[in-house]
Automatic annotation (TrEMBL):
Keyword Secreted found: no
Pfam family, one: ABC_tran
Superkingdom, taxonomy of origin: Bacteria
Protein name: ABC transporter ATP-binding protein
Amino acid sequence: MLRLEAATVRFGARAALDALDLEVAAHEIVCVLGPSGSGKSTLLRAVAGLQRLDAGRVLLDGADQRTVPAHKRGVGLMFQDHQLFPQRDVGGNVAFGPRMHKVARGPRDRRVAELLDLVGLPGAARRAVATLSGGEQQRVALARALAPEPRLLMLDEPLGQLDRSLRERLVVELRQLFGRLGTTVLAVTHDQGEAFALADRVVVMRDGRIAQSGTPLEVWLRPASEFVARFLGFDNITAATVDGGTATTTWGELPVPDGTPRGPGLLLVRPTGVRLGPPDSGLACEVLARTFRGGHVAVTLRPERGPALEAECGLRDAPAPGDRVGAVFAAEDIVVLDGTAAGR
Ligand SMILES: Nc1ncnc2c1ncn2[C@@H]1O[C@H](COP(=O)(O)OP(=O)(O)OP(=O)(O)O)[C@@H](O)[C@H]1O
């Protein structure tokens, strides 16, 4: 449905989008993740027609959008600061798009009622926007974005300002809602939890380019590069030389999954792959810190050689700072990263 071909946007000498290629299929939910300044908003603006391309093309349903103005592209946009019209009631806000498209009053009112049901605010049409909570306003903004039945819905940090528990709930509801409606979605977020929960496919951006694209599981299990791994919060990364079933690293000989290519590379050890036992059972380490993370405890270790290591432990069996432990590594949690300069 959407295709970007070598899309390029420059601000001065800097490319905010750097010959970016991206496709979004009909009914697909794609979430774009990336650090601040990586070009996420520019990408949405370019698709919406709010930002001119310096090179390349945006195609919607195969049609080049170069000469199509923003309001004729049939895409919906919902920004972080959802900017409802404060002087209109909820119904007036949701009806805005259909009214612009000259939809008659009867069908328009029916559509508003239907959408408010859908976003979990039945009967709220006559309420004043100022009387709504942040989460309710977000739902109204979503209903307003859906009202003109856009072929593509674009969300920029859609749940950005809400507290965590509300975000976690809404993200599940959104995914169900989009599934039910068959909406095609391109969303931007800096929150990886949100992206992984919402998306069919995650796209990680860096400096106007795509660093990795894949299902949430693929990206999580096999980050393509050191950049993506660190962006996802993985820090157990070291240089390694793979030979057969093992890798030689500063932490010692580590097992690697079958089929890992031989040669020098970078190795990521997921914290779940660092198993702790008595000091003589593996790589000797001192426990530096213990951080409660809800479902588990993150333990920071200083190994007798090599950089610091993080291990993930159960709530009841995490060692305390100052303890001496032995670390053993599990092959299934070891990933060889793209160690080239481009990957870094
Ligand atoms: N109108 C503009 N004029 C000049 N530079 C701009 C303009 N808009 C964006 N940029 C620059 O382009 C780059 C990409 O910006 P963009 O807003 O797309 O990033 P982002 O990934 O959405 O960041 P954030 O997560 O902080 O919103 C940044 O370096 C930014 O400073």
